[in-house]
DNA sequence: AGCACGCCGACT
DNA sequence: GTCGGCGTGCTC
């Protein structure tokens, strides 16, 4: 079919720029093998290339006329090698997609190859891939390395077979029979030879029965079917994927939600006037096909999700894809389930960072090959899926810090989403009940368009917020003050539910040794160990260090300990003492929701009213709605308010308002109790009246006065060195000099380096250097200078955190 | 990451 | 004298 990709006589004069997908991740120039016509090579293909004496995989970034290269003095003397092969006949990445990632690579100071490699599941960039061709009957496999050293004639022969569809690239070696599900990818008629009876029989079988595993296929068609199957899968008619493994598991997790009815905000078919107005405006904006960015500020229970749904439908109808991002996996799963219930026909792809490589590979491939518009729901890593035509990106709970967090690639979901939207002329929609102050500020400056949903669906009122003074509480009193206990009992007696938020997991956050007069600390971090009762261990929440407890004090060997403070585990235990014995209490935190699906089980059980009280960490305050919850208690509000962070108040405000959102929906009135020792804090007036704009105004004034974002750009250079390296302290002074000197010429305020609040972590001393500047480039510049003039590269690690999520 | 090249110790 | 340890450095 594709014989036209083979070259006959044309001279090949283009040069390929290829980004390597394995170290050294550089972008190198290659000439093109004359066996293929120049038009065969397309930007975005994954290509096989020679490097040194081996072979690698890279992505073709550009094709340039030879003259451009030869005029460059750097590359003039290098004799270019030919590319070897392509893994794709068509382009795998679109030029738009590559442009977005190249932009990201500039921002992160990383080579584009490294970005592409971290984005591509391993199976799609593995050096172990093989070329499989059929010459006559028997299939033959060649490793990529073998391809490099074939003589001209064999190479051309293979290229001919491959070009005519007599072979393909084997993406992965697949496991055993039952575990492999075969799925038809193409509707009839199928382009196979009419004489290929077995292949046709197999295609028919799958057409009739849907997806089948290989065991069943073998039983029905005999062992000979294997050969046909292999062939068909290499031709792309049939896809073989793991049957049980992760997909089955993911489905199981989805099923947990099935018995839980949709919330009224999501299930409503009639839009409220406010919703309709917002939807109309945003639809109009989508219709223009112009890039645009919006902030949807809808109070808790105002039905933001329905607005998303309407826009999603509209965007799909335009033939453009939609990405809907949630701040964490559990929310994405829930959201997917809710949406699927509303649109049973629509295929919705769930994508998040906890999926296994195999599943991620299959999703990546599916997205890259899709011709139709797709709906993707996931966490921030979903932004890297190679969608052809994204039209709408929604970030739900846009204020959430997890959109900024940095594991692996340090990118900010909001910025990346913005870049994508710019590239594709799409729409960015940020949604929250408690927007980030920066987003709010951006609406004032016209960079975001503000839309509001000021009322709850069904006219429900916002809950009443009350402060509970806990200054008088002694350690023996437990963590809940009398008014909180009474309110809790009252709620339960009415047959309603309550949630209690305590942002501290474990049993006791501090174990005090009476002999040493010191808490037990982690030997690697400057942090007290937390006691986990069920695990019978003390644990460092920062590095994971732990040992069985009780055990003699590591310093004095005494066994005289007093636990201090209360975590969720203890709270759950002490609640059962306070509440009537028949009251069921559930707990939700990272410790008991570790197993896949466990979190969903707990949330679903609570939603089904199998318990009256749910105790949890902040994962509980994020977006989950329980209609019968009428009381929310924030057990220790000061935990967040007292953090050494300029955003402590903003974060706390968001937490309080979100928690308030858990209480009371529809007809039932809700109540929120906030326990604090800080009764005079300026935020309470605004929390009590849920006066967002009032709070934002005051907070903005404060930020302006203190020269904090959004009125300046703030960054942290994080420096660390091994504790045992005593010269480190001196070296920090050296860096103070370097930064100060460099900052003189640029308009950057430098503070430090000074010991970080978390002064030791994993055996390394930590220092922070705070930078403030109007221009990000200047901040980057100072960091670069420090990086280059680091005389102790093996000892000192440094890392630039732009707009840090935490200052610790 | 590979893979060569290279420079030392302990084996036939 | 040769085999093989893995330290350093390069790859269009
Ligand atoms: Zn530790
Ligand atoms: Zn002690």
TrEMBL record:
Keywords: ATP-binding, DNA replication, DNA-binding, Helicase, Hydrolase, Isomerase, Metal-binding, Nucleotide-binding, Primosome, Zinc
Enzyme class: isomerase
SUPFAM superfamilies with a match to the protein in the record: P-loop containing nucleoside triphosphate hydrolases (SSF52540)
Catalysed reactions, semicolon-separated: ATP + H2O = ADP + phosphate + H(+); Couples ATP hydrolysis with the unwinding of duplex DNA by translocating in the 3'-5' direction
Gene3D superfamilies: P-loop containing nucleotide triphosphate hydrolases, PriA, 3(prime) DNA-binding domain
EC number: 5.6.2.4
Record-linked SMART domains: DEXDc, HELICc
Cofactor details (free text): Binds 2 zinc ions per subunit.
A GO molecular-function descriptor: ATP hydrolysis activity
Annotated positions binding Zn(2+) 1: 513, 516, 553, 556
Protein name: Replication restart protein PriA
Gene name of the encoded protein: priA
